[in-house]
Amino acid sequence: MTSPPPADDADTSAAAPPRTRGPYAKGVARRREILDRAIEVFAQRGAEGTSLRAIAREIGVSHAALTHYFASREDLLVEVYREAERQVNERESDTGDITAAESMAASAYRNHAVPGLVQLYSSLVASALEPGHPEATAFATERFTRVRRNVTAHVRRDQRAGRVRADLDPAAVATLIIAASDGLQTQHLLDASAPQTEAHALLVDLLTPRD
């Protein structure tokens, strides 16, 4: 649910794939087209309770074409979220001088415009906690590890710059920021009157050094 965190210098997960030619390149392009269309559809309504065949109809491809590129409904949903995240990461890689907590808050506000993707993310994480969902489990486990690593690196930079209290463990701060961001966005989906802005501001204030 949190948008892509500021990338660690050593993180190459968002690196562009090598250029290819011929039929393989066409297949990659076709898969990307399907994902782009699916992102548009899911951004507003999510994909809960929708079969793979119904998804194929809605995004304008045959069921056979969809299953050619994606082994299962869950595989498609995982790849839709990964691609949406990659696209955001490309557009907004520069976080400027804001802190990790402020960056996550900004991501949460941007996500208000794509409630379906927030719902999709929440569904994948919920599925990851249940047996029999290997794609969702692998996705959520890898993503939390990567986001936590990158946010921890951002927190360390904030501490060196004097923007975050130096007496706090960076990994613990990162874990708290992620939990707050995900939880507040879930509350916003259920009740838009929840004081999300005030809660984010409170977290930033609690992490700010006192003179």
From TrEMBL:
Could you name the domain of life of the organism this protein comes from? Bacteria
Q: Which organism is it from?
A: Microbacterium koreense
In the UniProt record, does the keyword DNA-binding occur?
yes
What protein name does the entry list? TetR/AcrR family transcriptional regulator
Which controlled-vocabulary keywords does the entry list? DNA-binding, Repressor, Transcription, Transcription regulation
Q: Does the keyword DNA-binding apply?
A: yes
Q: Which InterPro entries match?
A: BetI_C, Homeodomain-like_sf, HTH-type_TetR-like_transc_reg, HTH_TetR, Tet_transcr_reg_TetR-rel_C_sf
Q: Which ranges does the entry annotate as DNA-binding region?
A: 51-70
- Which Gene3D superfamilies does the annotation name? Tetracycline Repressor, domain 2
